[in-house]
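#random but structural
TW: two for the price of one
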Amino acid sequence: MLKKMISANNAKKKSSSTSESASGAGATSSAGATSPALKPPGGQQLFAVCAHGFEPFTRQELVRLGLSTTNPPAESSSQIAQEEEAGGISFSGELEAIYRANLQLRTASRVLLRFGQFHAAAFSELRRKANSLPWELYLSPGQPVAVRTTCHKSRLYHSAAVAREVTAAIGDRLGTQPELLPFSEELETQLLIVRLVDDECTISVDTSGALLHRRGYRLATAKAPLRETLAAAMLLASGWDTLSTLLDPFCGSGTIPIEAALMARNLPPGAVRRFAFMDWPDYDQALWEKLLLESQDLLRKELPPIQASDRDAGAIQMAQANAERAGVAQYIEFTCRAVSAIEPEGTGWVVTNPPYGLRVRSAHDLRNLYAQFGKVLRKNCPGWQVAILCSELPLLQASGLTLDTSIAWVNGGVPVRLGRGVVE
């Protein structure tokens, strides 16, 4: 699977070299400008965007990858609070950090490069200062862009006008006016994010392209599919050690067991997809291939039992097809059966996303389902760790399990809780 991505990237090498030459020529007129680009001593300032509530787990991943700039959690909780912003985690690094974060992060949605920050209270000031940024590092002359703009408590409050001025500044810098397009992940247009707060402008360059939950394996989906990033966050929040048995008795299209297998095998989630940085003029294909090969050396051969079941035969077929595309089908035992029929051996973790809310059933049926689920777990899985995603606390209470429901997320626009505990 990793070799597939390396081969695909070889086709980009020639075109990337051509773009680099062109962008260098277009930037000559502004080479001497003083740039408000952000580059702290540790490298470029980066931001891993994640869903609200995922921040501790995204930070955990960054620490594991050696990409976090803070001390370990035990040393200073105040430092963690400062670094964990709403909706993401700040870190710093050079190109390798950008590549590694996109390749390896399981809970993040995007990785942004904080490109520039400056005061701008007039459109002329915005255009002049945006023009001084080294756009030639990330864009080729005339390359289309999409700009997402937010303005808050600033003299420049018209977001569309701000987007046009930033686009014009890029044209000033590179010598060719880029086309400003509406952002679409299908078009793979380079996304720029402009944020104005109290007349302070921050410009970020998206390094990821399509959202990172798009691993490339989930083409078939059952009812109410779970995003891959949410499944990964559930696994991390559950405390699963990747060595013990994992069971999902409501597997649907298989996202939780597939993410578990990827995690246990050490397969990087971004190994078989493209990223926005691959179209940058300074894209380092050799570095990317080096990271792919390094990750291949860390693959685990022996995995714990990963068991996934669902009463819907069609869902099981979809899950098996998705697992095949992810390259982990041989590590997951898929079975079509009702939750009452599960009979796992030993001890381990149950991590699952049962039906809830508007998903399929009436409130009465759902209460009965959760009550039955709790009885089955107490009978067949005593001592197991459990993590259950649900939108309604009364349903979790109907299971009869003692659960910590302090983790609150959103799934498909629906507020949800992750109930965690030990089956007693």
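TW: number two ↓
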Amino acid sequence: MGKEPATPYGGKPDRGSSHRSNKSLKCVIRDSMSVVGEFVSFMALRNQLVAGVLVLLALVHMAILFAPSDGKSLDFAAFYRAGLLARENIRALYDRTAQEQVWPLPTNDPHGKSYFYHPPFEVPLLRFFAGFPYKTAFTLWSLATLSLLCAASWLLRGMFQSLPQHPLLLTLAFFPTFALIWIGQDSAWLLLCFVLAYRAFLKEQDWQCGAFVALALFKFQYAIPLIALLAFRRRPKVLIAFSAVAVCLALLSWVMIGTTGIISYCNLLRDHGYEKSARMVNLRGLLSVFGQHPAALTIALSIALLIWFGLHEIPDSIYFPGAVAVAVLVSYHGENYDAVLLLLPLVAVFSIGYRWPAIFFVSPLYLVLLRYNILAIIAVPIAGLVWALSRPLDDSHSLHVPVVRAVEDELRRDRQKSSRS
């Protein structure tokens, strides 16, 4: 056998050195995998804890919803009254005396009398529910609202990836969802219209997008700012479809109630009863928290915000949710139940990777702010949503929307076919 080669320093080579280095490398890999596994376990546990809290909030909301109540101080009472009046004399739909006579207005409502002042084209839907006794109608309305919320959540689930929780769980644990079901509002229909418009916008189905936004004109304080922001994207088909459907709805309303009814509607809209600005989750409410201010200031800030956001060059996948958040901020009349529209920008922000918007799901916060009539403070984190959705996407904050991928693939296939031909 030959001699062992000497090492550079004159000693014998250590045959176990390579073995020890391999062993130490395996230990490092094993320790690293252990740390990764612990981190994954921690994240899974954290997600489970968050899911547990959301389930608890949803159960609390549902328990309160099913508590006994006479329901006559609810907003649905105004809808029910409009449906009854439409069955008797729709031309007098916006006559205060007629609304009081067709079904007694609640006298125990601390906010005063609640009249129906939504556009006439919504009345055929309300007329259907007015064909049932009040409690039955309210139950059916609540079930319809829950169905619409489930449909919106299902659509959002299909459009977004990397969500920390299922959109339906986020929806049921969201305080504005509880508020709109509790008083029987129609904001769930509005949310579904905006989600459908968003889906059509991503798929470049501009005619459908404009039509869905126009169908949301029963709460025009949100639909008009949204279509104004979509105009910045230079997609004329969206504007044409919106205008066409809006004209059709206006003509339908005129046929239903006539010129006198339209004048009565405008008068009622100008003075429809109790309003508390500091409880509104928008710029108007936020400014009122700090005292009286001229309406011109609210209008100027709203226009500035619309222009500022509209000029941002960001992907359509985050532009539309950001536009919805801006529409909530600049709406002149925006109650807490209408904040259910924030589910769309919230899901988008969560998908990007932000986690601070979880503050929106702290129900006690809403109750405290309502107690002291300063719910408008919520407009501050809404502004944060707008800021987050106005930022360009990067490696740390990226959004993966399967609908966008499908459209891009389809466009790529069309280009390939046209190039071959």
